[in-house]
Amino acid sequence: MLSEQNMIGKTVVITGATSGIGLATTIMLAQKGAFVIGAGRDKAKCQKAEETILENSPGAQVTFCIADLSCLSRVKVLALNINRIVNEKGCKGIDVLINNAATVSSWYTTTPEGFETQFAVNHLAPFLLTHELLPLLKKTPEARIIMVSSGSHFRTRFNWDDIMLRKRYNCLLAYKQTKLANVMFSIELNRRLGEDSTVRAFSVDPGLVNTEIGMKGTSGLVKWFWKKRSSHGITPREAASGIVYLASEPSVMREKAVYWKNCKSCNPSRYSQKGEALLKLWEISEKMCGISSEKYKLPPVV
Amino acid sequence: MRSMICITGATGGLGRAFAVECACRGWDLFLTDISADALETLACGISSTYMVNVDFYPSDLTDVSSRERLFKHITEKGLIFHGLINIAGPDYEGPFAQRTPEQIRTILRLNIEANLEMTFEALKHREKGRSFRIINVSSLASFYPMLIKATYAAYKRFLLDFSLAIREELRRKGCTVTVLCPAGMPTNPPCIHAIDIQGFMGRITTKNVGYVAAKTIDYALKGRPVYIPGLVNKILGIISRFVPSTTAARLIYERWG
Ligand SMILES: NC(=O)c1ccc[n+]([C@@H]2O[C@H](COP(=O)([O-])OP(=O)(O)OC[C@H]3O[C@@H](n4cnc5c(N)ncnc54)[C@H](OP(=O)(O)O)[C@@H]3O)[C@@H](O)[C@H]2O)c1
What we know:
The complex is a heterodimer. Chain A is α/β, with parallel strands linked by helices. Helix content of chain A is 44%, strand content 13%. Chain A has an eight-stranded mixed β-sheet with strand order 3-2-1-4-5-6-7-8, sandwiched between helices. In chain A, α1 (20-31) packs across α2 (43-56), α1 (20-31) crosses α7 and α4 (117-138) packs parallel to α5. The model of chain A has no long low-confidence stretch (mean pLDDT 94). Chain B is of the alpha/beta class. In chain B, α4 packs parallel to α5 (150-170).
């Protein structure tokens, strides 16, 4: 189900816009008339994505920023670049932020800041980017933050003693934890923003999608498994329609639901809604990103 | 000033894993590596996450004057240590005759000169009255004469023997020396690729660096001499004692040559 709503005059930021679900979403948003700022880690891929988008939607308004999200200092630079583009283009602010980029890693590897790679790219980067872009999101009458999460967050808990699984790394568990973190971040962000906020966060489960995510940064066995499994998945375009629905459908903002699949709201896992865990994850993430809730006016809810 | 753990080659994959592991245990850190930017980024991430003090000083350890500046900095700032983790050590893979003279010099300077001088300096600045832990990173390659990695395997052997010898010299002075001898380390995309193309053998001889760093420090705290991560690697280490070097070199040639 694709929302009929056009997006002319809307500004959308999307990470991981160079392939898979992100690229398909960017194409669709551009076709609906939105001004899309895409983020990618590789210059050549960004150029190629831009060409693909313009082929699919001639005259589309799209621009790309290059940033490797595995480094938090680069996330901050990305936010500055987005600010600059928004100002130069004379946009009011940001209407939709889609945190879509994610990675899978077979081995425990660390980012330049010393964080486990999946945890940094899939959770810390969107956590920080959202904080940094919040002032721009607050400038538009209604703004949405969409976390591309996954059904794999069900039946997953945090290993609080070793949240980045340093000692007992397991690729799938590390990935699932980050997708759980995406859901929990959106729930806690909504609580902190308050009922009357013009900004709302959502998490979306795109379902099983036939993309290359399991073929990058992984070793032979994971590649083989992902190739087999993903061939049963839906196309990135089908997955994108659920995200575009959340980004554009007016009724979505009135519903209090946070978790969506196939354009319908549903319940996220029970664990993801636990107050204590929500707070703990938030505090850990703030510490890792070196930021404080006071600065962003997001105090904890008592 | 609280005493620190000094880590060389801190911003590489294994260096970062050790830095994080030490910070998790609440130890303050002194990091060194070539790039000041990389050191600052790492120090920033670690200090905010684990609430420890992280100091750093960039140095090209292959360069004598750069090393001297580093030692001067340590002296002038009055830094004191209760541990040293020597990680810096490049590997240029390929037949010996195809290496460049510069590569050969770098290997020797960094792995032998710098490692020895760093150990010497750190011992001068050790915290009085506290056990001092030295961890040197050798390799499983040190147990065998390795073609394609001839220089690498040989200097890793040097490090192993040197470490075990000073271990005895320093034993009564409250100092332990532990040598880490890993096989493949999946620290960056090229290493991961190299492990990948070895297939099953690569998979079973490889351990995650986070686990390796944690275990190595456990070994060091217990004062144990050598840590070989992984059962298969331990067995390969034991076999090396019974196979004559010339036969081992020949067998390795059959497998890799
Ligand atoms: N595929 C599925 O079945 C499935 C199911 C549930 C949820 N999801 C979620 O859907 C989202 C999109 O995944 P996908 O399946 O479309 O995979 P994908 O095609 O690999 O897309 C991931 C995107 O993230 C980017 N990215 C990865 N690491 C990055 C980094 N360090 N810095 C900046 N960008 C980085 C990638 O850039 P490059 O183009 O340069 O690689 C790519 O554009 C992810 O959040 C994923 O968790 C996917």
